[in-house]
Design a protein that fits this description.
Four copies of one chain form a homotetramer.
Chain A lengths: L16 H7 L9 H18 L5 E6 L2 H10 L7 E6 L2 H12 L3 E6 L8 H10 L5 E7 L1 E2 L4 E2 L2 H10 L5 E5 L18 E5 L10 E6 L1 H6 L12 H9 L9 H17 L1 H21 L3 E2 L11 E5 L6 H12 L4 E2 L8 E5 L6 H17 L8 H21 L1
Parallel strand pairs in A: 2-3, 2-4, 4-7, 7-8
Antiparallel strand pairs in A: 1-9, 5-6, 8-9, 10-11, 11-13, 12-13
Helix pairs in contact in A: 1-9, 2-9, 5-6, 9-10, 10-12, 10-13, 11-12, 12-13
Chain lengths: 396, 396, 396, 396
């Protein structure tokens, strides 16, 4: 029923053996002190991954989408103004959620493949003399297009405009895999899930709230109970939850942050960059282009690859699954049929990445794309060999 | 880190080996057809457990509380009137949630240990000539007091009053363990979680919506995105989810319903009744009383046991954990310190139940309660032996 | 397919969760250094459990029986003289193995229920002026009768007789659960398996060879290859095996010895004694007797319980399995039908033991034995409560 | 601690998820009927894999080496004459075992890289007018050299010589992966282990005895107890074992044979041939040669690859492990340092194979071999794409 091949969807990721075992645990009494001994280290660990000392962490049995809902319902009221850019499927969905919750969203329509237009944000924020905009929404890494936006630039836009709006960042497909600096960037709510950089099964929304966001909670009028961080905070203070906690995932999260810290966050980021560089070298060797328009936008967690006119990217994905039992990501929304995606986040080795590239080559050739077999693999091998040599030199 | 003893909290339950393994799976592509082959049988299976052919099932990565929020946000608008009884912690919380979402809750204050006052409901519904009450909320099994209410009687109250209100039932600690008849009782939304009768880890809200409840969805104005069943329905139609589904739990649910059906639902209920009868016989032998006031209120999934004046029920629970590594449930809310609870739901054997009773005896004796060691065990043994003999006769 | 009840056979034991997970591992290259990092700590850990600093440990993918064959084929030649006592099934089988390998066995027929007659051994050894007896065989704990023999006394018999024979001890159902002192008792080969005190699945023969036994290896003429400890020693020196090692079990053994050491060996022995004392108190309360004839012979790992004339012990065991899904041990050999056995070794809690006693009571009552329900449980509860109180006093 | 990469040692193999879970089971009573319900289907399943209806299967907690010892000790006596060829490490070891057990071995020294010289066997057998040779030993697949010998030819040699000697075949690295016809080839003892074609952890010797071999058991004088198939047969007749059986592995074996039969044995063999063909195409593309001298000798389970003069094959293996965390097999014995081995047996996908080839390329390049990156991968991709196309045509 399950394949032995690694998966190359941009999350959920391949789950390391040790995390499989950490999650798979017998039932314990979640009201006993045993639970607190998992929960609190997990919360502290997430802070380290978010690079925050000031933020507070809340974990909901939910998903990244639930994390977004946590962010807005705990801080905003119907009619509140929000600024966003729409440059991919996930920013699109976040805007939609805001509208469904009665928020007043100003959004900058941005080409898919581009990052957040920090300069446009600055103009809009500067123009908002009355400081009516309560929140700026930013998607750090657009999973649909493989575009990483510059959150530090968004912060500068806010600062340059001297605007007090809060900054909420969707880091679902970046946190734990690419550098994320909650405190330094002045992020007020950071959002991710268990199934990406934390390499766990899905089921946890992971959120970080800055002191400023915490202050907004009391005045927020959007109705909420399940996602109310006040109840959650009360629960944490008693080593518990306002309802039944997802014990296994929290135990897994505790182990996952330990695993990330043992490797060293910067090493984790470097590893993602190395794997991604290999994939990008392969794309170039194939004569193809990424959806992300410029190198500084390239994501280290997912590559969305444009297929030439006349080819259907969806067929590449479905053929890979049917013929070689390997899962890649399809294009979503505007780029459906135009891109296929190789997820390269979480726990991945050079060898695993090469197997994905090798299968991608075969499938593209099967679909008639003018791909030279082995060419992408060779380009990636080159990247990985050089990285290994550099690492050995450094170690010596 | 984890005890070898079974747990006796009223959920999450002991997880059968086969369900542990079904949940613990490697990552698959949740957008591939493989996922649909888990999801749809799971949905169909839940229908059988709910005894509905007309209802639609929605599974959220969440908990029973999330299930409640799903029920109200998908069917109601701020200001809508709701009728409830408050006879325990969970009905209390549900009322609180409704109020936080701006609903207008009429509730009948009911002694803890009593069931839902169907006759009072009938009076109130009859008096509501304008049919302003949109929903009647009912908690089938109050986990805090070990009281099972008569949902059929609540339905009769609605029918007698010729009232069109919808009936929402919290079956969190009953469904899958005690008889639940969604269609026959005219339940419009049924709610449970993965971690009780379905014997899985926590992390899934399981809800069933009647056609009438489905109709209410379009006019409902409470904001919702994560819990919006319309998005979920759209997802299911495409074998998917509006966000990342909790694949392992859904695979587990599929196996859990198969397990329940293989045993036979009526046999599952009979087993719960047998185990519970043994526990109740033990309580009687100890000279103690249940919080549930009358036999027809006795829950087959959890027994809340009143400790005599002058003793602290919480100490029984904490001592059991510290001294004998066994988890019972504490009293909640009004009955905190006055009752301790033995959960006996999910997958449990006579032998496991007896080990819980034996430890309860030791702890009560340790705490100075006038308990004769072995007395409760002997009473339960008698129940279990007779049941075994009856079963053998029946088989012969 | 598998029961949730603990098992009460005298091994294999209930496997702790952590050891399940340690054994269940993906394939590694057993010729890589990774394997050595499991193997050597496991070997060192076993030494601690055997209380030997001088001995060498050899682990074979096999069972305790394979351990016996390892002992004799590596040290003896056809026609060599061996002294043994036959006081149970396992000593019986060991003698049979020696005879099938052409050894000349002198054995003292000893009543089942008695221990090794050290005084008779002393007489025989003293009479053996020519020192023709090469080895004395001793079964530390007769699993069939629940009798623990006094190995120190056997050593004294050898010493008193000033006899140079080697001492081989079957510690299969004692090592890791009851005190075993390889060096102090002058044991030359100690033998056990993975599935008893080490709480692992079956599949490993665990042997310890003294320097004197190691010296005997070169002159031993019994043919052997698979069990040849010279090949094994060569392998260990290269972090490997002469054939494919059972990697998971060796990883499990490494974790098991850590678990035993973390608890403290003397605490492990005390726990076994506590659990066993409770079982023995129950037997007394039932008005029954143990097969072991005197308290100093009582085993802390298994109790063989004599059923009154006119009852069939086998029926108790089969009925327990069929009716209550609980596994006890049948009587073997001479005592088949006359005893049933409760295994209480490995990882066991008071609560688990009580569940076994409760079911034993029910089954005996079902079979018509004049047992008062709850009586044995109450007697064991008393033992366990007192032990808990004593432990709390000590900790305070 | 454990890598996420697949392993490419020639066994133990990568273990499929379902078999991991089948082996990892809680303890059951191995004397209860539950065990028989695993054991007997496993035995029947092994017969199908061996293609025997007349043979009897015996499973020992041991390894392939233990299987060899089972074969000779149950059928032969000291001084008995045996004929063998020595064309690799495993045939070498088997001869050594025979000599250590006092057998009189005639062996044909055969170049490593060659198969069994059936014609020489025929000459020797024909010359043995007195029929003193009791057994012909044959290694079906020499794991050290990647050479598959022609067992049917060995049978013809015996038949042509009209010689009544028994034929014992080591099928450790062939059975379950390549065609093996016990009855058709007149194999008298077939031997394998759990960790190769059956895809399980190591720990089981799997043997099949023909009626003729069974007849030899009574007259065999080599001492044996642990490996005595008479005790084992007695055990099986009672649904048990003469000692503690490796329950998890036997449960796993039962699932493994079901898995092989579900795929279809011929499909399993074709899959191994496909994967192996890709590897061989890669070797050719690299400009290297196999140790196996001719195509008809090529093994479908392991390829031993000769490295050019001046390079150390061991360094390739150690560098692969250290740099890319991937395990290949070293050369053994005569070919140590001269070959490295890629194991491709058990459960393997095209994608996994390609990752192994990609890493092999990188390592060889790192070591200075004149390898063009991507060349071997491209050659294998070609093989796998063509095979997939052919399969699709066949299905259509």
């Amino acid at each position: 029923m399950t394949s032995q091949n690694p998966i190359f969807i941009p999350g959920p990721t391949n789950i390391p053996e040790a995390l499989r075992k950490a999650v798979d645990m017998p039932t314990i009494d979640h009201r006993s002190p045993v639970f607190g001994r998992m929960l609190h280290p997990a919360l502290e660990g997430v802070k380290k991954v978010l690079k925050t000392t000031k933020g507070e962490i809340f974990l909901f049995p939910s998903t990244g989408t639930g994390g977004w809902e946590t962010a807005i319902t705990n801080t905003l009221s119907a009619g509140d103004k929000v600024l966003a850019a729409r440059n991919g499927m996930f920013s699109h969905r976040w805007i939609d959620m805001c509208q469904r919750h009665g928020l007043d969203v100003t959004f900058v329509e941005t080409p898919w493949g581009e990052g957040i237009p920090a300069d446009r944000f600055e103009e809009i924020l500067t123009a908002d003399k009355g400081h009516e905009i309560r929140v700026v929404l930013a998607t750090h890494n657009e999973t649909a297009t493989g575009v990483r936006s510059d959150i530090a630039a968004v912060r500068r836009a806010l600062d340059n405009a001297k605007h007090p709006a809060m900054l909420f960042v969707d880091g679902v497909s970046s946190i734990g895999s690419m550098d994320f600096r909650m405190d330094e960037w002045g992020v007020d709510v950071a959002i991710t899930g268990s199934q990406k950089g934390f390499m766990l099964p899905p089921g946890l929304a992971i959120t970080g709230f800055s002191p400023k966001a915490m202050e907004a909670v009391e005045s927020a009028r959007l109705p909420r109970t399940f996602f109310d961080i006040r109840d959650m905070a009360t629960g944490y203070a008693r080593n518990g939850y306002p309802y039944t906690p997802p014990v296994g995932l929290i135990n897994g999260l505790n182990h996952a942050v330990t695993m990330l810290m043992d490797e060293g966050l910067e090493n984790v980021f470097a590893r993602h960059n190395r794997i991604a560089s290999g994939v990008r070298a392969a794309v170039k060797a194939w004569g193809l282009e990424l959806c992300a328009r410029r190198p500084e936008l390239y994501s280290d967690t997912v590559s969305a690859i444009l297929v030439p006119e006349g080819f259907d990217a969806n067929k590449i994905v479905s053929r890979a699954l049917e013929t070689y039992d390997m899962a890649f990501g399809t294009g979503l929304g505007q780029v459906a049929g135009k891109v296929f995606r190789i997820g390269h986040l979480g726990s991945l080795t050079d060898a695993m990445a090469l197997s994905g590239l090798a299968v991608a080559e075969m499938v593209m050739a099967d679909e008639g794309l003018p791909i030279q077999l082995g060419s992408g693999v060779a380009a990636a091998q080159d990247v990985y060999r050089n990285a290994a040599k550099a690492a050995q030199k450094k170690a010596a």
